[in-house]
Amino acid sequence: MKYLCLVYSEESVLEAMSKGAFESFSEEHVAVDAELHKTGHSIIAEALQPAHTATTVRVRNGRLSTTDGPFAETKEQLTGFYLIQARDLNEAIQIAGRIPAARIGSIEVRPLWDLRRHEPRAWR
Amino acid sequence: MALTSETAAEDVRARVDAIYRAQSRHVLATLIRLLKDFDLAEEALHAAFAAAVEQWPRDGIPGNPRAWLVSAGRFKAIDAIRRRARFDASLTELAIQLDAETSNPADWDDEGLEDDRLRLIFTCCHPALPPDAQAALTLREVCGLTTEEIARAFLAAAPTVAQRIVRAKAKIRDARIPYQVPSRIELPERLETVLHVIYLVFNEGYSASSGDSLTRHDLSSEAIRLGRLLIELLPESEAVGLLALMLLQESRRTARTSSTGEPVLLEDQDRSLWNQDHIAEGLALVERALSLRRIGPYTLQAMIAAVHAETTDGTQTAWTEIVGLYDMLLRLDPSPVVELNRAVAVAMRDGPSAGLSLIEAILARGDLGGYYLAHAARADMCRRLGRTEEARISYQRALDLTLQEPARRFLERRLRELLP
Prior knowledge:
The complex is a heterodimer of chains A (124) and B (420).
Chain A: E1 2-10, H1 11-15, H2 19-38, E2 42-47, E3 55-60, E4 63-68, E5 76-85, H3 89-98, E6 106-111
Antiparallel strand pairs in A: 1-5, 1-6, 2-5, 3-4
Chain B: H1 2-35, H2 38-59, H3 65-85, H4 90-101, H5 116-124, H6 131-142, H7 147-153, H8 158-174, H9 187-206, H10 217-233, H11 237-250, H12 276-291, H13 297-309, H14 319-332, H15 336-350, H16 352-364, H17 372-384, H18 388-401, H19 405-418
Helix pairs in contact in B: 1-2, 1-3, 1-5, 2-3, 3-4, 5-6, 6-8, 6-9, 7-8, 9-10, 9-11, 10-11, 11-12, 11-13, 12-13, 13-14, 14-15, 15-16, 16-17, 17-18, 18-19
C-alpha cells in the first residue's frame, strides 16, 4: 500500500537554524530517503519552498480563482513529503518516525486511494 | 422418550449459551484475522452460532467447539459473498481469494500461534484511532457489549457511539491498520495505549464523571476482565501493575459510598467492608509486578493502593511511605493530578498547612483550576486549619465545577457544616 508522509514544520524554527545546522538537517533527510530507496520503501520524496510561495486554486461555477498562500494558515506548514510503499500502517508509522523532521515538526501519514482500481467492497 | 430428547435439546441449548459466553469473542477474533473485516466477521459469528443451535442438538457437540464455530463462520461468510456476487460480479474474485487463503484448517485455530484475542486488543487500541473510539471499539469487539450498553455506560447517545465504531472500522480497513501484535520495538508505546484504554474504562466505571450514580459497576468489571485477559496473554509488568491497581481500588467500592449514595473519604471508610478477595489478589499481583523488575506508573500507583489495603486502622497509615511512592511516581510520570495527590499525602504526614501551601502552588501555576477535587482538597485543608471563610469559598468553587450528583451532595453538606 502507498502512503504519503506529509512533513509539517514551523518555518520560523527552520529559519532560525544556523547555516551549518540547516545543511546537516537537510542532508539527514536526503540520507533517509536514500536508505528508503534501497529498501524499496521510498517512491519519491521532495522538500517544498516556503508556504508563502504557495498558490491555492479553486474552480467554482466554472470560474477559476486563485488565492495567495497555502490552503490552511497554521503554525506548522507543509514543508515536504515522502511518497512511500509500506506493508501496512504500522510499517508506514515506523518509516515516518525515521524522517528527521518528525523531531521538530509532525508527519501526517495518509494512505493513497487508487481511483483507477475499484477495489471490491463485499459488505457495503 | 420425547421428553428425554426435549430435555437433551435444552441441555445442548444451555451448553451452546455457555460456549457463546466463553468463546464467542475468541471465535470473532479469529474470524477477523481470516476474513480481514470486522463486519463480515461479526455476521459470520452469528451465522456460526445459529448453525450450532440447529445442528448440535441433532449431531452432538463437536470435540473442539471453537474450531467448529470458526470453520462454520468462515464457510458462511464465503457463502454469503458468493450469493451477493450474483448481483455484483466483482465479489466473485473476493470469494475465491478468501476461500483459497483460509482453506487450511490449521489456520482456523490459534493454538500455538499468537492469540487472536491479543491481536484484536491491539487493533482496537491502535493509536491511529481516536481515544474515544478505542474504548468504544474495545468494549464492542473484545468485551462483546452492545452499542446501546456502551452508550449508556458513557452517557452518550447510541447513534454517536455507533458512528464512532463505524468510523474506526473504516479507518482500520482504509488505512490498513494490521491485525497483529506489535513488534518488540513498538510494544512499549502500543502497550501504553492498551493500558490507558483499560484504565479509562475502569475509571469511567469507578468514578463516573457525571450522572446520578457515583460508580458504574459494569464498566469496572469489564475493565478488570480485560486486565485479566491481557496478563494471561501478555504478562508485562505494567499490565500486571494495572490489574493490581484496579483490584485494589475495586476492593473499596462498597465502602466508598454511603447508604445515601454520597462519597465516603478514605479516612472515614469502614475498612471491614473492603473486599478481602480483591485485596489478596491485588497484593499478590503487586508482588508479581515488582518481581518483573521494571516499575512503571501503574505499578507505583498499585503500591500506593497496597499500603492502604494493608492498613486496617486508618490512623496508622504509613504516610511517609506513601509520600515516597508519590515522589517516585512524579519523577516517572509527572502530572498536576499526581502532585495534588502527593500534596494530600504530605498533609496527612506533616499536617494541613504543609499540604495547603503545596496545593496553592499548583493552583497558582494555573494548573487544575477547573478540577473540582483540587478545590475540594484546598477547602479541606482550610477547614482543618480553622480558616472557615477560605474553606467556604473553595467548597463553593468545587461545587460549581462538578456534575456528579453525589459529590455535590457531599460538598453541600460540608458547606452547611461550616456554618456557625
